[in-house]
Design brief:
Blueprint (H helix, E strand, L loop, with lengths): L2 H15 L3 E6 L7 E6 L5 E6 L3 H5 L13 E6 L13 E5 L4 E5 L8 H23 L20
Parallel strand pairs: 3-4, 4-5
Antiparallel strand pairs: 1-2, 2-3, 5-6
Amino acid sequence: MQPGQRLARGVGRYLRSLGFAGIEEFVPCRGLRVDVMALGPKGELWVIECKSSRADFQGDSKWQGYLEWCDRYFWAVDTDFPTALLPEDSGLILADAYDAEVVRMAPEQKLAPARRKKLIQKFAMDAAHRLHRLRDPRPGRDGLLIAAPEAGSGA
């Protein structure tokens, strides 16, 4: 597991303890991929970006585009990360591979109802597709559920 993936795992465990469901590497729209999208018990949507180093943070030029796709935006970093680099008008989560904790709550910017509905539907579809792929990674040869009889087999 890469350092950012370890942070995402700890964040996911923490979010579950709060009653949230999280999906890693969620694509809210073409061209954007957030590290963790979390759906809360009241329908709230949080984006959490996991940064494992100063270079990882400084190389991220897309994060401001994520703000319009969530109610709250957080950074998740480990205890060695220089948190002074992070914008103060966003949330902060300290995490490791096993757990996490919100140390600064992100300000709330409520999504428009139509966008919320679209995102929750996409979240549900993505989660269901991922679960299905885990259970059945290859449903049939070339996408066929039942193989056609071979020529000359008499079937």
